[in-house]
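Changelog-adjacent note: as of this version, every example in the card shows the full chain rather than a window. The one below runs 148 residues end to end.
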Amino acid sequence: MGIWDWALEAYAREGVPDACLALQDEHGQNTPYLLWAVWAEAQDPELLRTAADAARRWDAQAVSPLRAVRRAIKAPCPPVDDAAREALREDVKAAELRAERLLLETLAGLSRGELGGAPALTALKAASRAWGRPAPDAALAALAAALG
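Full-length structure tokens:
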């Protein structure tokens, strides 16, 4: 299964969205990067560093700015028409998802479809360390458990 289809299926599982958002918003982690690490069963430190560097650059250039705009236009802004504002917000959300998909597909290309053999929690811990300041083990374990 390709990474995008896998990520959509994984994100639809109960508990995964909440665990991902907590890791992103509370612990400074990157959700697509973490999901890629689980999908790739990644544990190779060099591959994880290379992927983290690529994810950081793309996040700074595309994903985070789009997310900031989406969040900024969430509330009504009179006299801007509310329906038009919400339609624009949906367009920005779609662009943010396309940017995340591009990141996932780029990371999948780095791993060349080769699986590293690491269980989900091992891959998450290794990826979190490579990202920078590691997230708490409990937060990573919550995502691993939700992913099954």
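Structural remarks: Residues 82-111 form the longest helix (30 residues).
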